[in-house]
Amino acid sequence: MQQPSPVSQSAQRPPPGQQPVRPMNFRPQGVPAGFRPPMQPRPGFQAPNGGTPPPHPGLPGGIRPGFVPNQARPMMRPVGQSPIQPHARPSLGSPVVAAASPIQQHQQPQQIHQQQQQQEQEPPMSPTAQHSTAEHHRRKRMYPEQITKAYSGDVPTSPGYPPIQQQQQYGSPAMSAQQPVQQQFVSPMGTPAVGSPYTQPQQPLQQQQQQAYGQQQQPAYNAYNQDPVNQMSSQFGNMSMGAPPATVTPAVPLLGARPQIADIGYSGPAIRLPPNISVTDSPNVNCDPSYQASTINAIPATEALLKKSRLPFALVLAPYRSLKEGDEPVPVVKDSVIARCRRCRTYINPFVTFVEGGQRWKCNMCFLLNDVPAAFDYDNQTQQPADRWKRPELNYGCVEFVAPTEYMVRPPQAPSFVFVIDVSYSAIQSGMLATAARTILDSLDRLPNYESRTRVGIITVDSAIHFYNLNPSLPEPQMLIVSDLDDIYLPQPNDLLANLTESMQTLKTLLEKLPDMFKDSVNVNNALGTGLQAAFKMLSPVGGKIICLQSTLPNTGTGTLKPREDVKLLGTSKESTLLTAASPFYKSFAVDCSRSQVACDMIIFGGQYSDVASLSCVPHYTGGQTYYYPGFNASRTEDALKFAHEFSELLAEQIGLEAVIRIRASRGLRMSAFHGNFFIRSSDLLALPNVPRDQNYVVEVTMEDDLKVPTVCFQTALLHTSCTGERRIRVITMCLPVSNSISELYASANQQAITAYLGVKAVERAITSKLDDARDAIVNKIVDILGVYKTHVLGSGQGSTPQLTAPDNLKLLPLFALGLIKHDGLRQSSQIPTDMRSNAMNMLNTMPLQLLIPYLYANLYSLHNMPADAGEITENGVVFPPALNLTAENLEVHGCYLLENGQNIYLWVGRNVVPQLCADLFDVKSYEGLKGGKVTLPILETPLNRKVNTLIGKLREMRRGNYYPTLYLVKEDGDPYLRLWFLAHLIEDRTDNIMSYQQFLQHIKDRVGSASF
């Protein structure tokens, strides 16, 4: 039935005091709430057996065979119940929001936005995020004497501190990136209840609110909304003349306001599936977004609609992510009963349909009927019939099967590791060799060694290749030198790759003596390519992992590289030539490794130019990882500690071996492009000799045909050998609804997943074309998304408008895009060395979302005026101070701030900092006594020092991955390079020739207004 227009609704409204007619929720007295009268099947309804819909359970005629009552999800909503539940995001297809009353349609947009925020039960926000620029310059200047008095609380002075938005509280040691950060509301100025000794006493709340950003000087969009003419044009622009859209997402004005960073941890809109789409009521039928996420959580029904929306369609995968405290382990199916579709080979999952009394199941990908295995309802352990509805594969979107022998080409191989260690002059002088040998020695017990099957070998490289006989019967290891670099061979067939348990003592002896063996070496040559070939010969029969520690540019033997860093090319259109591999050897060698199930991790120490772009080809095509340590010197404790920690975690990683990944999708969808560290063996099969933990993959999806089904499914299957020697299949299933509404597509878009997609596409464009093209591609995609939203969702015509708006779920997408443009991997600059840029690009390609988002938009905290409970350990975890926007307006000359992006931690100290703060935090008398650069924070008995050390410790272990951030002390008037490096993270400000956030938004708005969509 066609719904009446808003005009007809208004005409039929009953007189005041009478009950309005509710045709959809009307229920006569005495009829149960769950009763539904006989009706025609809804459009698109398909009975489980493909025939006529069965009668309703409450009607005469009984229930259909195999029906399982779904009490958790009633078929009809009780009368008067809101479709938006408390503490939930608005659903796709919310009838209450869609069918707004005429009164609501004529409310001011600002009022509607406020009402919708109240309905959604969002965490409370501080009145504003920043001081206005005008207010910033009206602050009372403070001099050192006044600050010192303020520290002791003698003289009340104006706060002069930026307002702080939200108080973040991290729960478990590793907050999942997909879960919003718990927030606690603090006072508008973010100051603690008890006056901090490092700042001034609080002012009355009214004065604080007046000083908050945007209160004294209203943003442009407020003035725009208050103009009656603009109100009318905005209302007409937002009105839909046809049927109301199924989903209405609040339109957020962007210009004139700081980005709402309190929502930066929001992982995207929830997936809203039709009722009873899964065979069980489990809340885990869809996989967790940290394993697999889509850029859009509602799939367009036609290719034309996808092109019209201009939204990217891709999957972001981290199928082998690590588990931290509080994470649910992946359920394991151990009975070897694996049900798969005979045609498309899809694994049975919660979205299949059982028919014929449960004897057969219909595939949710290709709709073929398959027989249910006889042992599917039988428990081998208890020798009793089992309840199939409790099987993990029908209740969880991410499960792991123990694979039978037919999934093995050969028996599961034991983990094997070969270390290729540079022993040239620079490796000795920098302390790399000594640190690496000590770390391996200390980590031998942490290497995966289930049932004592692991094997280990060591090769050292300078101008010759040194092998080591690790036979446990020898009194000490025996060195075997091969100087023929053109045709490398193994000097003896056995004992070069030795059993770790049996040769443990021999290995320890070798590692203890290794630094002294080469301490007097002056050999500056390095034959890395030949050393890699030697390691490959050792591992190719059994497969395994090469771990290469490289300090000198390979300058002899196979794979020789030459210094090609040209300062004149940095920042020009020809810079991309420095970002591609200089020698074809490393890619061809990686392909040979992948074919023989050999992976490679590359650990590069950059004292000078190291050609990261060429060396990282080997990990890229073998599923490995690249670690880069520029300017490494083991005499600095911070350098040695960072490398030792990350190297030790890498050695202890529970990796997957001999792996392949295949992604299947519903009919009409196809995987078209793949991004990440792997080798594409066939059109859709990804080969990974090694599956490291917490590595990201992005897969682009293409529509080949229109979708005529209510939902589509994606299933990722990762076949691998675990470190325990079991062949396993990790199956990750995700079901998404199909929509014909462009507004639903925009309401379902995931800004974090889109950011990951933009990152890998920009890196690809930068390497194959130019860095300028990569940055332009990001800007063009943001213009397309916001332009289509303005034209086809809000209904505004072509032309310039006073405001730039975005849907609430994409309000931070321009900020993330600006973060990409200003990132070291893509930024327009002639000051970024090629090695550092190449390493940054590698990270953009492989970082999971939980690491990528803070890597692009760092967290900034104020330390001198922290709330009383910040830095304390509570039952919910460590309490963090409120996060600040990344702008220099938040940096006071007498303040102390902490900024972290997951890779580095910076402590910024203003030049007029209170001397007592220097004593309490750094154990120095004054600002002049501070020394900038890499530091280790002392451990003192002061409350401030204890809190900051707690925060830093939490930051170093809270996220997934092996990274150990280095701590830098940055003085406001200290080292100019270090200061500029810190300020480059303040991406909301203008830097060099790169726009500020507001300028970027204005540029986007101008582009949107001048183009047609």
UniProtKB/TrEMBL annotation:
Coiled-coil regions listed in the entry: none
GO BP terms, alphabetized: COPII-coated vesicle cargo loading; intracellular protein transport
Domain (Sec23/Sec24 trunk): residue spans on this chain: 412-649
InterPro entries with a match to the protein in the record: ADF-H/Gelsolin-like_dom_sf, Beta-sandwich_Sec23_24, Gelsolin-like_dom, Gelsolin-like_dom_sf, Sec23/24_helical_dom, Sec23/24_helical_dom_sf, Sec23/24_trunk_dom, SEC23_SEC24_subfamily
Subcellular location: Cytoplasm; Endoplasmic reticulum membrane; Golgi apparatus membrane
Biased composition (Low complexity): 102-123, 200-218
Spans annotated as Disordered: 1-218
Residue ranges occupied by any Sec23/Sec24 beta-sandwich domain in the UniProt entry: 656-739
Matches recorded under SUPFAM superfamilies: beta-sandwich domain of Sec23/24, C-terminal, gelsolin-like domain of Sec23/24, Helical domain of Sec23/24, vWA-like, Zn-finger domain of Sec23/24
The keyword Hydrolase is assigned to this record: no
Pfam families: Gelsolin (PF00626), Sec23_BS (PF08033), Sec23_helical (PF04815), Sec23_trunk (PF04811), zf-Sec23_Sec24 (PF04810)
Positions of the Zinc finger Sec23/Sec24-type domain: 338-375
GO molecular function: SNARE binding; zinc ion binding
Keywords: Cytoplasm, Endoplasmic reticulum, ER-Golgi transport, Golgi apparatus, Membrane, Protein transport, Transport
Start-end of Polar residues biased regions: 1-11, 175-186
Domain Gelsolin-like: 881-951
GO terms for cellular component: COPII vesicle coat; endoplasmic reticulum exit site; endoplasmic reticulum membrane; Golgi membrane
Main location: cytoplasm
UniProt keyword Transmembrane helix, yes or no: no
Positions of the Sec23/Sec24 helical domain: 750-853
Family: Belongs to the SEC23/SEC24 family. SEC24 subfamily.
Name of protein: Uncharacterized protein
Species for this entry: Mucor saturninus
